[in-house]
Amino acid sequence: MPQSLNVTNPDRLSLLDTELLELEDKSHLHAHVASVLIFAGPAPTLDELTEEIVSHLDEVPRYRQKLAEVPYRQGRPVWIDDPFFNPGYHIRHAALPRPGDEPALARLAGRLFSQRLDRTKPLWEMWLVEGVQGDRFALIGKTHHVLVDGIADLDLTTVLFDRESAAAAPTGPPPIWSARPAPSRAELLAGALLERASDPGEAATGVQELLRRPRALADELRHRLAAIGPLSWLAGDPAPRTPLNVAIGPHRRYTWIDGDLERFRQIKTALGGSVNDVVLTAVAGALGRYLRGAGHETEGLVLRAIVPVWAPADVGRSRSRVETVWAPLPVGIVDPRERFAEVSQAMDGLKESGRAVDARILTELAGFAPSTIISEAARVQARSRFANLTVTNVPGPQGALFLLGRRLEAIYPVFPLADHQALGVAVMSYCGRLGFGLLADYDAVPDVEAIAVELEAAIDELSALAGSARRPGRGRRADGRAAPAAAPPRPRGARRPRTAAGGDRV
Fold first, then answer.
1. Can you say how many angstroms the Cα of residue 297 is from the centroid of all Cα atoms in its chain?
2. Strand duo 389-394 + 357-358: pairing
3. Of the residues 67, 87, 142, 174, which has the fewest C-beta atoms closer than 10 A?
4. pLDDT value at position 136?
């Protein structure tokens, strides 16, 4: 049976994801999530890596599928098997010039993150990068956001790694995969129309249905909007203007810093609050330092950050949920203790007041509402009128992971930029470390490395305030050097020299 003719087709893209694709077409948004993974030891060959990845593709079938558009835009795109799937297109090979330092790796990553994924093929790429200084190699992975959401939080890296240093013995050749026949344009159209006629949820997405059943739809919409009522406090209250909130282009810069998770725990224990509060306070301190160093007035300035918060699963539910809060970043507060207290109190207040919004509610709203309403709901996150930047803090595995017997040393995550948000900060914990990935527009933030330096200084400042002893492996920048000692606040207008790139409640 053709893939597209199943009523209530599970392979059909959600309305929210369809809106994301349309927004990507109309802007310089690159809607892929990504990461830089650094491994110890010599790199595997490209053939070895390809064979390992292919052996796991049956566990993530979306990675062999592409999107098919419905003719005349009469339905949302559907996932279909790619009859020309070739792993060699998606798994690529690169090498750094000597000495292969981390600034060179960061520059390569920035160039790769500047390129959109080809919509005519499965929406992912994996780059094997040889020649990383210190007898190391890297993997740079890119996966489109709609693919990650479509496979229910399971992606390639989830199934690729081992928890033992010895590579698992092969169990035999992977099963032979063959693509299901691709539906014709007529079948795609017929499937969409049949689904719309048979599924009340699909029928309710049309404007005509809105006119036909206004009372019923209004009641249902009112119920849905009540769930996202906490978002209404943002109405008519756009985020403050800053040099970081300008029109973005297609090109990106990327750098990272490396932190000690235990150090962050010591800070939050000493000051009260959560690890996420420490992260947000450090980011606020870094942005304040950066803006003042560039000669911008910050007194009384409070930036607004979109912060996805991972909450544990409730009893009887196997999956955790994602709550989205709009967190204040008081960049104008120079005193770190006062800044931390402001952030911690605000975060507690947001959660208690109901302003922590279950992100899945937005997805459910998108699956119900007419397209005109969907466009507005989706733009709450994709458009930047209500936020200055996004700061994600994702709890990762705390045990060591291995790929083909090589130990994963560090994870540096990437979250896509939104329109008029020239900077994004993504944080992930792994094996006792915190990897901070800073993605920036290439032209709007030419000195993203300076923000990384200020972030290190802000963390050191909090650590000194909390009385945390400096640990031997206290953190690294993308240039491989240790983070600097805490420095006193610089007078306004002074500029730090530019450098080369790099279980708790969350």
1. 30
2. unpaired
3. 174
4. 98
Tokens 């949302």 correspond to what residue? 76
Cis peptide before 484 (omega within 30 of 0): no
The Cα–Cα gap between 164 and 255 comes to 30
Distance of CA 157 to the CA centre of its chain: 14
Cβ-Cβ contacts under 8 Å for 161 (sequence gap 6 or more)? 401, 402, 403, 408
Question: What's the farthest any 2 CA atoms get from each other in the chain?
Answer: 70
Return the closest-CA partner of residue 477 out of 502, 449, 450. 502
Pick the closest to residue 23 from 335, 336, 366 (CA basis).
Answer: 366
Encoded tokens for 235? 């109405």
Q: For 50, how many CA atoms within 13 A lie in the half-sphere containing its CB?
A: 11
Residue 88 CB-density burial (10 A; 0-12 exposed, 13-18 middle, 19+ buried):
exposed
Q: With the CA atoms of 18, 21, 27 and 29 taken in that order, what torsion angle do they form, in degrees rounded to the nearest 10?
A: 120
Predicted local confidence at residue 501, as pLDDT: 34
pLDDT tens for residues 151-208? 444 568 778 888 887 666 666 677 789 999 999 999 898 988 888 777 655 554 443 4
**SS3 labels along 77-137:** CEEEECCCCCHHHHEEEEECCCCCCHHHHHHHHHHHHCCCCCCCCCCEEEEEEEEECCCEE
What percent of the chain shows pLDDT beyond 70? Answer: 70
DSSP 423: E
* Most confident range, picked from 25-29, 119-123, 145-149: 119-123
Q: What's the 3-state SS for 273-340?
A: CCHHHHHHHHHHHHHHHHHHHCCCCCCCCCEEEEEEEEECCCCCCCCCEEEEEEEEECCCCCCHHHHH
**Whole-angstrom Cα distance, residue 446 to residue 428?**
24
AA letter at 221: L
Cα 286 to its chain centre, rounded Å, is 20
Over residues 57-81, the pLDDT tens digits come to: 998 899 999 999 999 888 899 999 9
Specify the pairing of strand 91-95 against strand 124-132.
Answer: parallel
From 401, 423, 419, 420, select the one nearest 411 (Cα to Cα).
401
pLDDT digit string (tens) for 221-252? 445 445 444 444 554 567 899 999 999 999 99
Contacts of 501 (CB under 8 A, 6+ apart): 102, 103, 106, 107, 253, 254, 255, 448, 449, 452, 477, 478, 479
Give tens-digit pLDDT for 259-283. 999 999 999 999 999 999 999 999 9
Token pair recorded at residue 244 = 């970081």
Q: What would the pLDDT profile of 385-395 be if each residue is shown by its tens digit?
A: 678 999 988 88
Helix (H) or strand (E) holding 473: none
Task: For the beta carbon of residue 427, count every other beta carbon within 10 angstroms.
Answer: 29
Dihedral of CA atoms 28, 34, 35, 36 in degrees, nearest 10, equals -60
Query: Which residues make Cβ contacts (< 8 Å) with residue 313, sequence separation at least 6?
Result: 319, 320, 321
